[in-house]
Write a structure and sequence with these properties.
It contains nine helices and no strands. With 278 residues, it is an all-alpha fold. The model has no long low-confidence stretch (mean pLDDT 78).
């Protein structure tokens, strides 16, 4: 009965995220193409917001129904899922660093008037992305080599949090109409959720040996949920060659989706060890 109660929110979250992704995609595509029907073009943005609220509610109930959770981190050899997702996340953060550096150069060389608030935020975000890349690469090494333990890098735990915070400031400096510019607002929500997840992750590292908290489960589910809504439509549009509709704040779609995959694989590992009674 307990497993059934925990699986129902998962099923509802899957349906909700698929619906939100599809609607959000057509909203973004509708800004670029006139081939979309007027119904989809005029589909109110608050429907997507409603789906996001439902996702938060379902994630909350999922976290409430989970019992007897295992430790958050149980570094052992052979955990291919966490190792692979950590490596890919480290690579995506490094890509973000390269991309931000290119954006700084491109902006500075092509702009007559340089907005230093904008360019400084890009530069700081790039540096923090590089540090975060090293951090998650160390986490991956910890999974494969017992001589490494990422938990010993106390300062580096805050690098991904600082990265998300700087990205959040970059969103906030824009004047946003949440009804019109749903893309920016969704990214704002995603970064808030990312901060919650990363802070929960820091607490879990600091309290190694204690069981996973429901706050961590809740933030993990939300991060996976929101990263899909924000990143997947962007990635599809980029593949289609439609990327000019995004705002000035540099999008990090690859990093966002890899953060979602990382939180999912970590939560999957916790659930697996919880079911085995470890």
């Amino acid at each position: 009965m307990r497993k059934t109660r925990a699986r129902l929110p998962v099923f509802l979250i899957i349906i909700t995220v698929i619906a939100a992704c599809v609607l959000h995609f057509f909203q973004l595509y509708g800004e670029h193409s006139k081939d979309v029907s007027s119904f989809l073009l005029d589909f109110p943005s608050y429907i997507v917001y409603l789906l996001i609220v439902l996702g938060f509610i379902f994630a909350f109930f999922y976290a409430v129904f989970k019992k007897n959770l295992a430790r958050t981190f149980d570094i052992q050899k052979g955990k291919a899922g966490i190792f692979l997702s950590s490596v890919l996340l480290a690579i995506s953060f490094f890509y973000d660093f390269i991309h931000q550096g290119y954006n700084c150069f491109s902006y500075a060389s092509s702009s007559f008037y340089i907005d230093y608030t904008y360019i400084v935020l890009i530069g700081i975000s790039g540096v923090l992305a590089l540090i975060s890349s090293f951090y998650f690469f160390t986490l991956a090494l910890s999974e494969k080599n017992e001589n490494y333990d990422f938990k010993n890098f106390t300062f580096l735990h805050f690098a991904p949090v600082a990265w998300a915070f700087v990205k959040l400031i970059g969103i906030m400096v824009q004047i946003v109409d949440v009804k019109i510019n749903i893309e920016v607002f969704c990214e704002f929500i995603l970064l808030c959720v990312t901060l919650c997840f990363l802070f929960s992750m820091i607490c879990a590292v600091d309290k190694n040996g204690e069981n996973t908290t429901r706050v961590f489960v809740f933030s993990s589910v939300l991060l996976t949920f929101m990263s899909c809504i924000v990143a997947l439509p962007r990635i599809v549009l980029i593949i289609m060659g439609v990327s000019g509709i995004f705002g000035e704040v540099t999008f990090s779609s690859v990093t966002y989706i890899m953060l979602g995959i990382f939180s999912f694989t970590l939560l999957y590992d916790i659930n697996k060890r919880s079911n085995l009674g470890q």
